[in-house]
Amino acid sequence: MSRPLSSGREITIEPHEFIISKTDTNGRITYCNEIFINISGYSEKELLGKAHNLVRHPDMPKGIFKLLWQKIQAKEEIFAYVKNLSKDGSHYWVFANVTASLDTLGNVIGYYSVRIKPNQQAIESISTLYREMIQIEQREGVDGSMRYLNTLLDEKGVCYDAFVIALQG
Length: 169
Fold this sequence. Notes:
The protein is α+β, with helices and mostly antiparallel strands. The protein has helices at about 35-40, 45, 60-75, 120-140, 140-155, 160-169, and strands at about 20-25, 30, 80-85, 90-100, 110-115. The protein has a five-stranded antiparallel sheet.
């Protein structure tokens, strides 16, 4: 399945909507709710079994997903702002919470994500950060953008989750 080109058109999530999905340990979608299906523009059949990054927007820095994978593979939750790309090329921002799903022995069996409407002022701030990270990635790779992010967080005296949760208000 080829990825759509961004149209620049934004879709907004309603405050009462929750976008929910589950993946296996490799990030392939095993469950998606109707809101996710509708906003992504893909059918359930097109989504199930596909890598969740099917909806990843090219404006997203790889460093954010590196951080996300590090945290959830360590069984830690993460909060993040994510810009996704719908099948028709439109995009939508979410404030995501991603956690590991564990079996009764504590083994990771997949991942669970709940996404809500983000604070619009936060999107303005995070977009600037993400643009800078992408520019750094183009020059120095993902590790360079991670160094930049970590330096920024150290200067603010916060961890990534505290930073994004404060932006969400």
